[in-house]
Amino acid sequence: MKLYLAPGACSLADHIALQEAGLTFVCEKVDLKTKQTEGGADFLAINPKGYVPALALDGGEVLTENIAILDWVSGQTNRLTPAGPLGRTHQLERLAFISTEIHKGFKPFFSGGSGEEKAKAAEMLAKRFGQAGEMMQGDYLSGPDFTVADAYLFVMLLWAQKNGVTVPAKLAAFRERVKARPAVKTAMADEGLLESA
Ligand SMILES: N[C@@H](CCC(=O)N[C@@H](CS)C(=O)NCC(=O)O)C(=O)O
Predict the structure, then answer these.
(1) Which residues contact 117 (CB under 8 A, 6 or more apart)?
(2) CA distances from residue 60 to 25, 159, 172, 189 in whole angstroms, order as listed
(3) Which of 51, 55, 135, 183 lies most in the core, judged by the most C-beta atoms within 10 Å?
(4) How far apart are CA 78 and CA 127, in angstroms?
């Protein structure tokens, strides 16, 4: 199995999830500007949408979109999905919130937005991070156990820190707690992120 990623991008969430799940996989970096992989392949032939993450399964099929990949990874182990009959559904609810309300909210920071657009985005993101903080049901989003939604939220919190977006103290503590997890350290080290973290 191969995860196509860009260091520090949203694909870090999938990298962390795969590592936490203890699955066997390799990573290949993608140059998001040239759409070439580290190995010289045309990334557009792998994911015509041109963005990471993409997960090439052992059978050859390729999964894209954070929500789908994280949901798939959580289905490979019994440790990364919240318990209960609605556990997976609530997890999808959180993943959708993080993807559509937080991840997309960072757009002005990555696509050369004006100062005004960035300030507006930071204000909206601070509100969304406040709501995410209220969702926390213990050390992690769904209680005492780490799930794939925590991996995604963690990456968003790294972006918030880098771009000066205000987050509740509860989430800053969560970010440090997640950063200390062995699987997270491994994934971050693989992406060369520990020096800058
Ligand atoms: N809808 C996609 C968005 C993924 C995405 O935004 N990827 C960014 C990195 S965080 C990317 O590869 N951007 C490069 C591009 O769009 O050309 C998902 O949730 O997986």
Answers:
(1) 108
(2) 13, 32, 39, 27
(3) 55
(4) 32
Q: What is the distance between the alpha carbons of residues 189 and 197, in angstroms, rounded to a whole number?
A: 10
* 3-state SS class at 30: strand
Atom 9 of ligand 1: nearest residue by CA position = 9
111: tokens are 């696509």
Q: Specify the pTM.
A: 0.97
- Whether residue 10 has its Cβ less than 6 Å from ligand 1: yes
Beta bridge partners of 31: 36
146 in ligand 1 pocket by Cβ < 6 Å?
A: no
Using most ligand atoms within 8 A of CB, pick from 3, 29, 36, 52 the residue to mutate for ligand 1.
52
pLDDT tens digits for 140-176? 999 999 999 999 999 999 999 999 999 999 999 999 9
Q: In what order do the strands lie in the sheet with 2-5?
A: 36-37, 26-31, 2-5, 54-56, 62-64
Torsion from C-alpha of 83, 88, 93, 95, nearest 10 degrees:
100
**Cα(88)–Cα(8) distance, rounded to whole angstroms?**
26
Peptide bond into 144 cis (omega under 30): no
Q: Would you state the structure tokens that stand for residue 150, as one six-digit string?
A: 């925590």
The CA 51 to ligand 1 mean position distance, Å, reads 4
- Contact yes or no for 175/133 (Cβ under 8 A): no
